[in-house]
């Protein structure tokens, strides 16, 4: 916990009033009472108002305990595509830029290669041979059935015809993979250019090529990401994974907006441990899918494994002094000001705004406590000193 100091107006009062005095008027006489309590602090009404102080009581607050981890924003494998060509070629056109949205089936770029022509020529030649080979096979079958020709001639004609059919079908499938229409080839329309189409809808994440560059079949041309189904991909160490359960709340932050806490839910937990890093992957579903997260964005997260309601005070209501913790309890309120007594307390859980006060005997249940304007963090005061 951060060390806290009393605001300047309170420090002055505390230094001046080590033992407090008050006066009582009875039967037209003034009686002076001296207090020997060094823990009393007097604050004037003006100081109270100027420092925007506030008196309150212990209240129930929610405290969480969890596993601190990190990870990144990701999408499922089905929403990520690395586009390559079935055959290498020179890039003819490449009009897309990173960030462009493309629809499934949209033309991305075109490739050019003389080898494409040879495949189409072979397909066309095979197509033309089929009619002859089919008629020859049928003729030999008839002659063989009538015992006019030998079985050898018949089997040879059958083998040639069926193997040519297999070659023809294989070439046709290859043309389809190259995005060339076989019907056009049968009509003699042969091209040296093939188009490359988008396999999914999404945004262009990377363009790895440029016009005129030769790209092998193994090289990625364009990367596409459909970010409509973003999720959290977290890394949890082996020692913590047993406390992680599906459905648990995830609170996370991004470096770009570290002051805001986003929420997600544990959806899937990996069933094997990475042997190198001794970690497990945890997949989380985002609460708000409309947030403009970028795929690959780093996140710091906390998976909530324990939640409890506890009596608490705001962080600024508690002073740390020599590893002990104190609060200011209202002792007296007059028209002239306020008198508080500094009392030691025991603390428990903490969150971003509150700290648990352990009050086993309920001695603080109905006490009025200075909850705002009492103490401020040392790092908020230039040259601040602990009280």
From TrEMBL:
Signal sequence, start to end: 1-25
Keyword S-adenosyl-L-methionine among UniProt keywords: no
Keyword vocabulary terms for this entry: Signal, Transport
InterPro entries hit by this protein: Beta-barrel_RND_2, HH_CzcB-like, MFP_Cation_Efflux, RND_pump_MFP
Limits of the CusB-like beta-barrel domain: 233-303
The keyword Transport belongs to this UniProt entry's keyword annotation: yes
Gene Ontology MF annotations: transmembrane transporter activity
Gene Ontology CC, one term: membrane
Family that this chain belongs to: Belongs to the membrane fusion protein (MFP) (TC 8.A.1) family.
PANTHER family with a match to the protein in the record: CATION EFFLUX SYSTEM PROTEIN CUSB, SLR6042 PROTEIN
UniProt-recorded name of the protein: Membrane fusion protein, cobalt-zinc-cadmium efflux system
């Amino acid at each position: 916990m951060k060390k806290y100091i009393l605001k300047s107006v309170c420090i002055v009062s505390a230094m001046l009033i080590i033992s407090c005095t008050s006066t009582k008027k009875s039967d037209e006489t003034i009686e002076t009472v001296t207090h020997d309590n060094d823990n009393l602090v007097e604050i004037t009404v003006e100081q109270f108002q100027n420092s925007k102080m506030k008196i309150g009581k212990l209240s129930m607050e929610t405290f969480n305990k969890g596993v601190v981890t990190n990870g990144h924003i990701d999408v499922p494998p089905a929403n990520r595509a690395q586009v390559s060509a079935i055959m290498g070629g020179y890039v003819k056109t490449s009009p897309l830029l990173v960030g462009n949205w493309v629809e499934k089936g949209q033309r991305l770029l075109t490739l050019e290669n003389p080898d494409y022509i040879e495949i189409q020529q072979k397909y066309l030649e095979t197509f033309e041979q089929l009619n002859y080979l089919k008629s020859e096979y049928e003729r030999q079958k008839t002659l063989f059935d009538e015992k006019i020709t030998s079985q050898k001639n018949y089997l040879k004609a059958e083998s040639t015809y069926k193997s040519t059919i297999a070659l023809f079908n294989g070439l046709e499938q290859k043309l389809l993979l190259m995005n060339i229409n076989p019907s056009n080839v049968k009509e003699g329309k042969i091209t040296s250019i093939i188009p490359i189409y988008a396999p999914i809808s999404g945004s262009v994440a990377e363009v790895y090529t440029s016009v005129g560059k030769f790209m092998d079949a193994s090289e990625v041309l364009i990367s596409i990401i459909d970010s409509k189904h973003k999720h959290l991909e977290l890394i949890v160490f082996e020692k913590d994974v047993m406390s992680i359960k599906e459905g648990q709340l995830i609170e996370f932050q991004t470096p770009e907006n570290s002051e805001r806490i986003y929420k997600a839910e544990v959806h899937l937990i990996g069933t094997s441990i990475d042997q190198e890093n001794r970690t497990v992957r945890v997949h989380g579903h985002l609460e708000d899918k409309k947030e403009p997260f970028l795929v690959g964005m780093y996140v710091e997260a906390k998976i909530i494994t324990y939640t409890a309601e506890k009596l608490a005070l705001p962080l600024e209501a508690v002073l740390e002094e020599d590893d002990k913790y104190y609060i200011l309890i209202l002792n007296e309120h007059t028209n002239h000001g306020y008198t508080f007594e500094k009392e030691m307390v025991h603390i428990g859980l903490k969150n971003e705004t509150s700290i648990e006060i352990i009050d086993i005997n309920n001695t603080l249940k109905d006490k009025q406590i200075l909850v705002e304007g009492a103490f401020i963090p040392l790092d908020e005061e230039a040259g601040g000193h602990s009280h």
